[in-house]
Design goal:
The protein has helices at about 20-40, 55-65, 70-80, 100-105, 130-140, 170-185, 210-215, and strands at about 5-15, 45-50, 85-90, 95, 115-125, 145, 150-155, 190, 205. By secondary structure, it is α/β, with parallel strands linked by helices. The strands form 2 sheets. Strands 1, 2, 3, 4, 5, 6 and 7 form a 7-stranded mixed sheet that branches.
Amino acid sequence: MSATTPLRVVAVSAGLSLPSSTRLLADRLAAATRERLAADQDRGVEVQVVELRDLAVDIANHLVSGFPSAGLREAIEAVTEADGLIAVTPVFTASYSGLFKSFFDLIDPTALTGKPVAIAATGGTPRHSLVLEHALRPLFAYLRAVTVPTSVYAASEDWGSSGDEYTEGLPSRIRRAGGELASAILGRTVSGASRATGLDDGEDAIVPFEQQLAALRPN
């Protein structure tokens, strides 16, 4: 890739409502990633948001017919050709939404190999926050993508919250995940894999991006 070619960050939002907290979270993660990329290197940064709500009928038709519409084909190409991916879903029945899963079912299983991905979800209650670890992270592990250490869950009460001395607020988690995704896109180390947040906010644990990628390769 040319040194003058802009870096491409694609955010996939599976929100259904309008306005959507899922889309809002996708936008904020994309902005945090763009900000860090712009600060860390000289190339331009392009951000594209794929709204799955607008492609719902096309996704259903493709699952039945096997032929994508032009718009759906463009969305799939944007995701598979991106330098970094942000994937955000609302929580339905303690998992990702059917629309979110249906879209990624259309992605070739090898098309995201080694691609840096930040995962996030929205829900009405904090009780569903583990959906990121028991549903989204395994999905992208199957697709052989490299998910950054920090995942972001936003419950209704998180919006407008700054957190307290024991927990990071939503803006802080967004900045952290965006920074990790930017580092992974640039092939640098990704920090925060085993960091426990508390009163003593010490140095981050460092997990080399190459080590994460090596873990995906078959023995």
